[in-house]
Amino acid sequence: SVTTPWWCDAVIYQVYPRSFADADGDGIGDIGGIRARLGHLRDLGVDAIWMGPWYPSPMADAGYDVSDFRDIDPVFGTLAEAEALIAEAHETGIRIIVDIVPNHVSSEHPWFTAALRSGDAPERDYFWFRKSQSMPTNWTGEFGGTTWTRTPDGDWYLHLFTPEQPDLNWEHPAVRAEFEGILRFWFDRGVDGIRIDSATLLCKDPALPEVVDGEPHPFHDRDAVHDVYRSWRRVADEYQDRALIGEVWMPEVERFTDYLRPDELHAAFNFDFLGCAWDPALLRACVNRTLEAHATVGAPPTWVISNHDVTRHVTRYGRSDTTFSFENNLDGTPVDLELGTRRARAAALLTLSLPGSAYVYQGEELGLWENESIGEDRIQDPMYARRGHTRDGCRVPLPWSGDEPPYAFTTATPWLPQPAEWKDRTVRAQTGDPNSMLELYRAAIRLRRTLSPEFAWLGLGADVLAYTRGADFAFVLNLSGFPVPMPEHRTRMLASGPLDGDLLPQDTAVWLRL
Ligand code: ISL
Question: Glycosyl hydrolase family 13 catalytic domain: which residues (predicted)?
Answer without folding.
Answer: 14-395
